[in-house]
């Protein structure tokens, strides 16, 4: 059995789920409003909010430990006559999770242009780059001076 | 002993209404929004998230508002809220080596791969009150942009590792369970994972004082800051219904690694040892303090003599939690009438006996 297409599909899905999780809800609402006609779907689970225990590692690389929790909202939807969509989104925004789940289902069903995801990703990279540029301006080169004791 | 009391309902109700009125303050002053707290008191939010042990900026801002800015009370509120939520997942360990750094400094190497970036620091400010902030300004501050080099930012301890001059982190056993203080009570001796979780939730002031005590000679560990980094890391979970890992978002973390002098023992050569601190948000004082105390608590496993409070894990771990300590310290203000009545009777009886003896 050839598992390669499935692996490719899984990595594409992982990517868009991560991008949808980081998207801003108003941006997702705008995408939803642009869907004509809006897709019919039902909620299979949630949206429901709970906690994720965030783990770290001692020294950043060693033994795992429990750092503390964060909020998470998950949602599963099913398109009428189509696949299920899942969302796991940091925070407590139920609408964010529901829209992310719907878009996951639409993307799996080939009913949504993947370029939409690329645009969301580009905005996220842009925000990160803007911060990185301001951080870069604080780069420092310390130099040590001989104290002249000898 | 606390014995239940009855009555006072009306007074309590009115006291809470008075609390609400005082919380609001002068109604002529605009009410604080959670966004304002989250954006402009962001370090208070970070502390409440770290010690309240829930990363959620809005919840922490709400807790701060409700607690009138009393951060320990806000931490208590967040911990209480936590118990109402189910745990849906455990994350994969966050990869702080892959952090998108907003700040990264080392006090041990001036030229280190990846360079040093100061980020939004209070360091090198003159700590003079800035009266320009006293009035709202129409001008929005804007920081200059530079050119990111985009080179990798390896861990400073890896540099020492190459020479074998620093003890390696104990390798993780992926099948071993990870102790969780939210599920099991503390037991001693506590393993490193349990200690780190306890310190991560622990009171910043308590850990700061303990860390300071080690510097002043109460269990000295000769620390250097190998590296502090603050920035964003992705959080990844592997939901059962998916069968693969997904990122749920990014969180801001502050990490501190100390490099500590170690003279060696019967089994270990002279080398540097490590202390580790990790906190939600931008919480540098907390992360450094945590790393100092983590290292001090490793004394037993490194064969050091345990003589100081910061090295005593029962002392440290039992007293670090400000929800527990605040609750126990403050409960003595609640009615103890029955207890005290007993004490009063005892002292009166002893006094009478003494007087009777004196009269004989």
Count of discrete domains of chain B: 2
Tell me, rounded to a whole number, the average pLDDT of chain B.
93
Biggest chain pair contact, residues each? A-B, 56 and 78 residues
Biggest beta sheet attributes of chain B: 4 strands, antiparallel
Proportion of beta-strand residues of chain B: 15-25%
| Low-pLDDT residue spans of chain A | none
Beta-strand share of residues of chain A:
25-35%
Global shape of chain B: globular
Radius of gyration over C-alpha positions of chain A, nearest whole angstrom: 21 Å
Structural class of chain B: alpha+beta
Global structural class of chain A: alpha+beta
Q: Give the helix tally of chain B.
A: 12
Query: Helicity level of chain B, as a percent range?
Result: 25-40%
Head-to-tail CA distance between termini of chain B: 37 Å
Structural topology:
The complex is a heterodimer of chains A (150) and B (360).
Chain A: H1 4-22, H2 25-33, E1 41-57, E2 64-79, E3 84-90, H3 94-108, H4 115-136, E4 139-140
Antiparallel strand pairs in A: 1-2, 2-3
Helix pairs in contact in A: 1-3, 1-4, 2-3
Chain B: H1 9-24, H2 34-40, H3 42-52, E1 54-55, H4 57-66, H5 71-82, E2 87-90, E3 100-105, E4 116-117, H6 156-162, H7 192-201, H8 204-215, E5 223-237, E6 246-262, E7 271-280, H9 284-297, H10 313-319, H11 322-331, H12 337-359
Describe this structure in words.
The complex is a heterodimer of chains A (150) and B (360). Chain A is α+β, with helices and mostly antiparallel strands and 150 residues long. Chain A has one domain (8-133). Helix content of chain A is 43%, strand content 28%. Chain A has helices spanning 4-22, 25-33, 94-108, 115-136, and strands at 41-57, 64-79, 84-90, 139-140. A three-stranded antiparallel β-sheet of chain A has the order 1-2-3. In chain A, a hairpin with a 4-residue loop joins strand 2 (64-79) and strand 3 (84-90). The termini of chain A are far apart. The mean pLDDT of chain A is 92. Chain B contains twelve helices and seven strands. A four-stranded antiparallel β-sheet of chain B has the order 3-5-6-7. The model of chain B has no long low-confidence stretch (mean pLDDT 93). Chain B has two domains: 9-82, no CATH class; 96-119 and 151-168 and 179-325, no CATH class. In chain B, strand 6 (246-262) and strand 7 (271-280) form a beta hairpin. Chain B is globular, with a radius of gyration of 25 Å. Chain B is α+β, with helices and mostly antiparallel strands and 360 residues long. Chains A and B meet through helix 1, strand 1, strand 2, strand 3 and helix 4 of A and strand 1, strand 2, strand 3, strand 4 and helix 7 of B.
């Amino acid at each position: 059995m050839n598992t390669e297409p499935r692996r490719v599909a899984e990595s594409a899905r992982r990517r868009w789920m991560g991008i949808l999780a980081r998207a801003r809800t108003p941006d997702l609402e705008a995408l939803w409003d642009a869907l004509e006609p809006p897709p019919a779907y039902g909620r299979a689970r949630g949206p429901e909010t709970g906690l994720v225990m965030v783990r770290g590692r001692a020294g950043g690389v060693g033994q795992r430990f429990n750092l503390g929790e964060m909020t998470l909202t998950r949602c599963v939807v099913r398109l009428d006559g189509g696949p299920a969509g899942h969302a796991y989104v940091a925070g407590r925004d139920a609408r964010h999770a529901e829209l992310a789940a719907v878009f996951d289902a639409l993307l799996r069903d080939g009913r949504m242009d993947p370029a939409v995801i690329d645009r969301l990703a580009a905005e996220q990279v842009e925000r990160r780059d803007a911060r990185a540029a301001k951080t870069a301006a604080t780069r420092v080169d310390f130099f040590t001076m001989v104290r002249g004791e000898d | 002993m606390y014995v239940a009391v009855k009555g006072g309902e009306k007074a309590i109700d009115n006291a809470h209404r008075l609390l609400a009125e005082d919380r609001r303050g002068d109604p002529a002053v605009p009410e604080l929004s959670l966004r304002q707290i989250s954006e402009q008191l962001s370090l208070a939010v970070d502390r409440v998230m770290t010690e309240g042990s829930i990363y959620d900026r809005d919840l922490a801002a709400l807790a701060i508002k409700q607690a009138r800015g009393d951060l320990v009370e806000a931490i208590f509120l967040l911990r209480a809220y936590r118990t109402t939520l189910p745990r849906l997942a455990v994350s994969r360990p966050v990869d702080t080596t892959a952090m998108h750094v907003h700040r990264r400094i080392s006090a041990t190497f001036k030229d280190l791969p990846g360079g040093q970036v100061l980020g939004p620091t209070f360091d090198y400010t003159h700590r003079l009150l800035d009266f320009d902030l006293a009035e709202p300004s129409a001008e929005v501050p804007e920081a200059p942009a530079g050119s990111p080099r985009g080179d990798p930012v390896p861990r400073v301890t890896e540099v020492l590792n190459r020479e074998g001059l620093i003890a390696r982190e104990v390798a993780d056993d992926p099948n071993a369970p990870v102790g969780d203080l939210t599920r099991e009570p503390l037991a001693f001796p506590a393993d490193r994972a349990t200690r780190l979780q306890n310190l991560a939730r622990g009171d910043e002031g308590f850990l700061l004082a303990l860390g300071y005590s080690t510097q002043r000679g109460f269990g000295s560990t000769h620390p250097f800051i190998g590296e502090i980094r603050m920035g964003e890391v992705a959080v990844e979970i592997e939901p059962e219904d998916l069968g693969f890992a997904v990122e749920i978002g990014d969180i801001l973390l502050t990490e501190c690694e100390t490099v500590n002098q170690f003279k060696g023992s019967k089994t270990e050569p002279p080398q540097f040892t490590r202390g580790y601190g990790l906190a939600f948000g931008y919480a540098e004082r907390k992360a450094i303090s945590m790393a100092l105390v983590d290292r001090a608590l490793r004394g037993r496993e490194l064969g050091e003599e345990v003589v100081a409070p910061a090295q005593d894990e029962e002392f440290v771990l039992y007293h670090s939690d400000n929800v527990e300590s605040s609750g126990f310290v403050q409960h003595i203000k609640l009615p103890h009438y029955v207890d005290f009545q007993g004490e009063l009777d005892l002292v009166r009886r002893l006094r009478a006996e003494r007087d009777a003896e004196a009269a004989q």
